[in-house]
Design a protein that fits this description.
Length: 746
């Protein structure tokens, strides 16, 4: 007997190839939940999930009947139920399409190689993933009386959609570069069908069309891109997209073909080909922070002085220095300024960087350091004088190093006693031999260490603990996040601080005076800046340097000054590079955290536990877990001051992050969440006996969920409340809002 469960699209169950129809939607929902979670669940939690409007005894009774229906339909051998728990048994003869998709996707992610294009095994698995994804998860299926199941279904579906988008993107690029254009076009079309706002997909489809001899189709694709972006976002295509269109329009095929035929290495574990990384050595690549280099360093003078002083005072005896802060705070920028100063003093400077998606690449930053060392003849001469047992251990990480020294013997097995200690010491001695080629203490900089693999963190700890009496200054930068890697790095820092061999700087956002100083410096360089720009820059950026300079970049790059309110406001749209950074942060959230961030975004910049609990539709324990997860990801923070000792409030770490999270919620879900928030606030006002204080917020949420009559009534109540406090202008605004929504006074 073989049972097959299909949850991509409308749910289907096949028993030995023949369809089975379950009598109730609750039975379908229960089977989907058990199959996708793959876990044992208590009867209590399942009853609460499927029958939230029932009391406990009736809910458990309804669950028993649903289990009986499900048990009979699939012949009784797959459901294991006890008095307290229920689970689906994954026997050899059960197959689930979503589970198969997840397995194949995970195998591709785990396959470590540098070039996906030439890996037939991974391409075959990705094609199978695309074949399995026939439609969205449980498309067309809903449980109207269970908001908790509805939420679970939504976020599970969103997670699968993101993975499917990654599958289609990789397949499109791979078959494009393999010159299998028909397949590339097919997957690019599916990619766009999934998300028509992805300009990368439009450009890839344009390239594939023209290379396949379909020039008119390529031109039409650009026009379609223009139409969609204008309709959905009110923006024009990126300059890169328009430039590609001009090349096709002007029949500049050689330029187009040469670009498409370049040798690119598609990285597994990322959704984009590593095109930007090919032109420079890995250690020198910079991300979106490159914008910082076009502006003077302000608001960080004390931090830079502290770095320089630490080097001058401690580097000769070995020292560890850490830079910590949120994404976009300017860790790399201040490090670059410090490295530039060190280079001007004749210090040997080496910088390596860890990359997102490479946390499974063992010893990646130290492999890169060995590669850089081999570019220097002096380093190779020093390696030659090293004891062979040290160099032999380092050569485990570098085949090219062994090629430089073919006389090295075969390294001993790693399972021998003391093998790890010998390996660590050999690698340490080799690196120190290279770094000591200058008369000044060497400077070794590790950027983005929050993305380091665990083995690299282990060896870094070994290296740092032994810097005493060694002329080396180790500088490290990582994000202020509550992840296992960052926790280990902080522990290492604390340990070294106790030994007085380390210092750290926790970078804060720029204050208003720093923003004012920056705008003044730019104005002195003959750039004309309006007086009101300074305040607006701080308001929009909230002192986050990445966002601040992105807005300055947009302002100074204008060829025609903004002449209308609409065109001026266009300047303050979230810049694309910062939007991508924020999207990555939101995309890293797990399903539960993603649900809570959506509910929180609807509530507003600041929110409390009680309202979030009501809006999310989850239990207290799940809400606490969700909040803790969001705190660990650094997207929210606890407020320093609360309205009362009993009420803890939370803030988004940046308003732009909240607004982006809000934008990503579908219209239907927004209305649902706004309704839940309004109802929660009504209940809070009822208990407090103070409806007027919350009336304007309640009206706002009722208006956004489409319930105009209720919104009008609460706007009227808000007007009365404001008038009673002599806030007459605000009262008038509330009355006008009530009137616009159709409020009729008796």
């Amino acid at each position: 007997m073989q049972i097959s469960l299909y949850f991509f699209g409308s749910p289907r169950i096949l028993l030995d190839g023949s369809p089975i129809k379950l009598d109730t939607r609750k039975a379908v929902a229960l089977l989907a939940y058990l199959a996708i979670t793959g876990q044992m669940h208590t009867r209590e939690s399942l009853a609460a999930l499927l029958y939230p409007d029932y009391d406990e005894s009736h809910a458990r009774g309804a669950l028993r009947r649903t289990l009986s229906t499900l048990h009979n339909a699939i012949k009784g051998r797959y459901i294991r139920a006890t008095r307290e728990t229920v689970e689906l048994q994954f026997l050899d003869d059960i197959w689930v399409d979503v589970q198969q998709f997840e397995t194949l996707y995970t195998e591709v992610e785990a396959h470590t190689h540098s070039n996906l294009v030439d890996c037939i095994e991974c391409l075959t698995k990705l094609k199978r993933c695309a074949d399995l994804y026939q439609a969205d998860f449980l498309a067309g299926f809903t449980l109207r009386d269970s908001s908790a199941f509805d939420d679970w279904q939504f976020f599970q579906g969103e997670s699968l959609r993101r993975k499917f988008a990654s599958v289609l993107e990789r397949l499109t690029y791979s078959f494009h570069h393999r010159n299998e254009l028909d397949q590339a076009i097919e997957y690019a079309r599916r990619w766009l069908a999934l998300d028509s706002l992805v300009e990368d997909a439009h450009r890839e489809l344009m390239c594939c069309y023209v290379l396949a001899g379909q020039r008119n189709a390529a031109l039409r694709q650009y026009q379609e891109c223009v139409r969609i972006l204008k309709k959905e976002l009110g923006v024009k295509p990126l300059e890169e997209t328009t430039r590609l269109y001009q090349e096709i329009l002007e029949n500049k095929y050689p330029a187009l073909v040469s670009r498409s035929n370049q040798s690119h290495s598609l990285s597994v574990g990322t959704t984009k080909p590593a095109r930007e990384l090919d032109s420079k050595p890995q250690a020198e690549v910079r991300g979106s922070g490159v914008l910082f280099h076009t502006y003077p360093l302000v608001g960080r003078e004390d931090e830079l002085s502290a770095l320089i002083a630490a080097y001058q005072r401690h580097a000769s005896q070995g020292y560890f220095f850490a830079l910590e802060g949120e994404p976009g705070i300017g860790k790399t920028r201040i490090a670059d300024e410090f490295l530039a100063w060190a280079t001007s003093q004749g210090v040997k400077v080496t910088q390596v960087r860890c990359f997102e998606g490479e946390t499974d690449l063992t010893y990646a930053p130290f492999i890169e350091a060995l590669r850089l060392a081999q570019l220097e003849p002096e380093a190779l001469r020093r390696f030659k004088s090293l004891p062979k047992e040290w160099l032999n251990e380092a050569a485990r990480l570098s085949a090219s190093l062994r090629a430089h020294f073919p006389e090295l013997p075969t390294p001993p097995p790693l399972n021998t006693p003391g093998a790890q200690s010998l390996f660590y010491e050999g690698l340490r001695q080799t690196l120190l031999s290279w770094l000591s080629t200058s008369s000044f203490p060497a400077l070794l900089f590790f950027d983005d260490l929050h993305w380091a693999d665990s083995a690299s963190v282990d060896f870094l700890a070994y290296l740092v603990r032994r810097v005493k009496e060694q002329p080396i200054f180790i500088l490290a930068a990582w994000r202020d996040e509550n992840t296992p890697t960052v926790a280990r790095l902080r522990q290492l820092l604390i340990e070294m601080q106790r030994m007085e061999r380390a210092s750290s700087l926790h970078l804060k956002r720029l204050n208003t005076s720093a923003v004012a100083k920056l705008t003044k410096r730019i104005a002195e360089s003959k750039h004309s800046l309006p007086k009101e720009l300074e305040a607006r820059l701080y308001q929009e950026s909230e002192g986050l340097p990445l966002l601040l300079v992105a807005y300055l970049d947009a302002w100074l790059s204008q060829t025609i000054p903004a002449t209308s309110d609409a065109s001026a406001e266009e300047m303050w749209r979230l810049p694309s590079n910062v939007r991508d950074l924020f999207r990555l942060r939101l995309g890293a959230l797990d399903n539960l955290a993603a649900q809570f961030i959506a509910a929180a975004a609807v509530i507003g910049r600041s929110f409390d536990f009680e309202t979030l609990l009501a809006a999310s539709g989850r239990s207290e324990q799940e809400t606490i877990t969700g909040i803790e997860s969001l705190l660990s990801y650094g997207v929210i923070e606890e407020c320093d001051a609360c309205d009362s000792p009993e009420q803890i409030r939370y803030d988004f770490t940046h308003e732009k992050l909240r607004s982006l999270a809000y934008e990503q919620i579908s219209l239907t879900r927004r209305r649902l969440l706004h309704r839940r928030v309004a109802e929660a606030l009504v209940e809070q006002a009822r208990r407090a006996g103070d409806a007027g204080r919350l009336a304007s917020q309640i009206a706002h949420h009722y208006q956004l969920c489409g319930q105009k009559s209720l919104a009008a009534a609460y706007f009227r109540q808000a007007g009365d409340y404001s008038r009673g406090l002599f806030a007459n202008r605000q009262a008038l605004e509330h009355y006008r809002s009530a009137q616009a929504l159709g409020y009729q006074s008796n």
